[in-house]
Design brief:
Elements lengths: L9 H11 L11 H9 L2 H7 L7 E2 H8 L3 H11 L5 E2 L19 E4 L2 H5 L9 H20 L6 E4 L7 H6 L5 H7 L2 E6 L1 H9 L9 E8 L9 E3 H13 L3 E4 L15 E4 L5 H8 L4 H4 L2 E2 L3 E5 L9 H5 L5 E3 L21 E3 L9 H5 L5 E5 L12 H15 L2
Parallel strand pairs: 4-10
Antiparallel strand pairs: 1-3, 2-3, 4-8, 5-6, 5-7, 8-9, 11-14, 12-13
Helix pairs in contact: 1-2, 1-3, 2-7, 4-5, 7-12
Length: 399
């Protein structure tokens, strides 16, 4: 597909289109974002994608607007879907029954940088792309993508940390119900971990295959990335024990009649973009973290805490620290031992409510507690609702 307006650089136009999405795509002093896009997409792909928006359109509508034939536009749009630059409402990846309003002719929209074509880029990921990504984040891309609220993905607490009545209030937190609904699950390698490995600057030993767990139709053939329920649950259990944060996808009601857990990335703080990225960009996790906090915060029972430090080691956002050292126990010999370690303390402003500390406490001294009504975050029921929330936030930040 040719560029219909030769006076406009196709990659500049694509950058502008991505910047207009609620997710954000910053322009940097060095123009590294242009290098990223040229690395990821051909001129033909960029020319078409740069004319799309967040509003879904049929291939015929797009073809008419850009002045070309629908037979030329359609295969190019389809090619951009696995590349992560285009998506379409009504995908049946979750294996469920589509809502009535989702049925009909397929419509396409521009997909953002994160979560979007960055995560879809495992096949094109090399050292150059990884270096360009990190430069983009540090030059301003991180602030534009991670800092606005709501965050890109939402924290879902570990299983066993929530009371049944809390799950009933927020059914999208019911991970067990998700595993009961499906027989096949798509589980993918973590692009963030792969990027860190390519850069060769850290030694994370946690599993590579950790993201997705999206339900698939029961007839889907098993394979390297398609697991049955037993294998998927076994891997999910392992990831929880290792302390991964569940970073769930928004769009809980896009493909289902009621809110429900649909899948999740499982993040470690040394690799994953939504935990590592804000640190790289120098952002304050208490207000600008890439993940949207859950509606719960960790509370430590000082009577049960043994000051073992397990929660301090497991917390992905450094929200837990050792409190003041305590007086030693009386010793019959008359020699005073060293002061005892202080019990763990939670910085509530930093806590994201992931429950990694809850499930990892050997003394069962930590539990989650709901935030106040004033702090309660209304979790969006669809990607469209999430986008509207972020647009409202961005509008409120303008002087």
């Amino acid at each position: 597909m040719s560029n219909p307006d030769q006076t406009v650089d196709i990659y500049e136009r694509l950058a502008y289109a991505l910047e207009m999405l609620p997710h954000g795509f910053a322009r940097t002093p060095s123009g590294v974002e242009i290098k990223l896009m040229k690395k990821a997409f051909t001129p033909e792909e960029a020319a078409l994608a740069g004319q799309l928006t967040r509003h879904p359109e049929t291939a015929a509508e797009i073809a008419k607007r850009v002045g070309t034939d629908v037979a030329e536009v359609t295969p190019l749009l389809e090619r951009l879907i696995p590349l992560g630059l285009v998506s379409y409402p009504g995908s049946t990846a979750g294996g469920g029954v589509l809502k009535e309003e989702m049925k009909g002719e397929k419509k396409y929209r521009l997909r953002p940088f994160m979560v979007g074509w960055y995560e879809a880029g495992m096949r094109r990921l090399d050292k150059e792309f990884a270096e360009l990504f990190e430069q983009f984040i540090t030059e301003g891309g991180g602030e534009r993508v991670f800092a606005p609220r709501p965050g890109l993905l939402g924290v879902v607490p570990h299983r066993g940390a929530l009371k049944p009545e809390w799950i009933a209030r927020e059914p999208h937190l019911d991970i067990d119900a998700h595993f009961a609904r499906h027989e096949r699950f798509l589980v993918l390698p973590c692009v963030c971990k792969r990027e860190r490995e390519i850069l060769g600057d850290h030694g994370c030993k946690l599993p590579m295959k950790r993201c997705g767990f999206v339900g698939l139709p029961p007839q889907t053939p098993l394979g390297e990335t398609v697991l049955d329920r037993e294998e998927a649950m076994k891997l999910f259990d392992k990831l929880e024990k290792l302390g991964h944060v569940h970073s769930a996808f928004y769009g809980f009601t896009m493909f289902a009649e009621a809110p429900q857990f649909m899948g999740t990335c499982n993040c470690c703080n040394c690799c994953c973009g939504l935990l590592h990225g804000p640190k790289l960009a120098g952002l304050d996790w208490s207000t600008e973290g890439g993940l949207q906090k859950s509606n719960y915060r960790a509370v430590i029972d000082p009577e049960k805490c043994t000051a073992c430090g397990a929660c301090i080691d497991r917390c992905p956002v450094n929200a837990i620290s050792e409190g003041p050292k305590r007086m030693p126990l009386a010793c019959p010999c008359g020699v005073l031992p060293e002061m005892r370690p202080g019990i763990s303390m939670v910085n509530r402003d930093k806590c994201i409510g992931c429950a990694v500390c809850v499930t990892g406490c050997p003394a069962d001294a930590i539990e989650l507690a709901p935030v106040s009504a004033e702090e309660w975050f209304h979790v969006p029921s669809s990607m469209q609702e999430w986008e509207e929330q972020r647009l409202e936030y961005l509008a409120a930040q303008k002087p």
